[in-house]
Amino acid sequence: MTRPILLFPDPRLKKTCAPVGRITPEIEALASDMLAAMYAAPGVGLAAPQVGALVRLFVMDCTKDPDAPRDPVVMVDPEIEAASEALNVYEEGCLSFPDQYAEVTRPAEVTMRWTGLDGATHRRDFAGLWATCAQHELDHLNGRLFIDHIGPMKRQLIVRRMTKIKRELARA
């Protein structure tokens, strides 16, 4: 099942998510649904609050080559263990903000720790788009959005556009 992706300004996008704790069949189903929604969108990452589930889980796959095999990562209760001092500027978008983009500065590399669907603890170093995506999705779990990292003028412009888009969709 492809779950609908919430659009800003839905208040659930600003909520801090609860820890998952134990991997259950419901969590496995949520992760599967989220991967399907992310690939269908298409996007490179999707956090649980974006589909209305206020739990600490996100999925990502930053494989850009259409001929390469998919490389999905499912992170349950993720944490950043380390972040580089070196920074990277990336033009970020978000599936909850269709067609809205802004340059965001984040650490260029991060080491993440999370629980996998297998119940084991995993660690992995990410760089480039993978690092940006992991930080972007982790922000979602903490009630932060990419627009919280940009200047007030650009943020206000995107908020206005999204309010208009959501109003137009409600009329359709």
Helix-strand sequence: HEEEEEEEHH
CATH architectural type: Alpha-Beta Complex
What is the overall silhouette? globular
Mean pLDDT: 96
Helix content: 25-40%
In short:
Helices cover 29% and strands 30% of the residues. It is built from three helices and seven strands; from the N terminus they run αβββββββαα. It has 172 residues and is of the alpha+beta class.
Structure description:
The protein has helices at 25-40, 128-141, 152-171; strands at residues 45-47, 57-60, 73-83, 87-94, 97-107, 109-115, 121-127. It has one domain: Peptide Deformylase (Alpha-Beta Complex). Helices cover 29% and strands 30% of the residues. The model has no long low-confidence stretch (mean pLDDT 96). The strands form 2 sheets. The protein has a 5-stranded antiparallel β-sheet, sandwiched between helices. A hairpin with a 5-residue loop joins strand 6 (109-115) and strand 7. The chain has 3 helices and 7 strands; from the N terminus they run H-E-E-E-E-E-E-E-H-H. It is α+β, with helices and mostly antiparallel strands.
Which characteristics define this entry?
single chain, 7 strands, 172 residues, globular, alpha+beta, Peptide Deformylase, 3 helices, two-stranded antiparallel ribbon
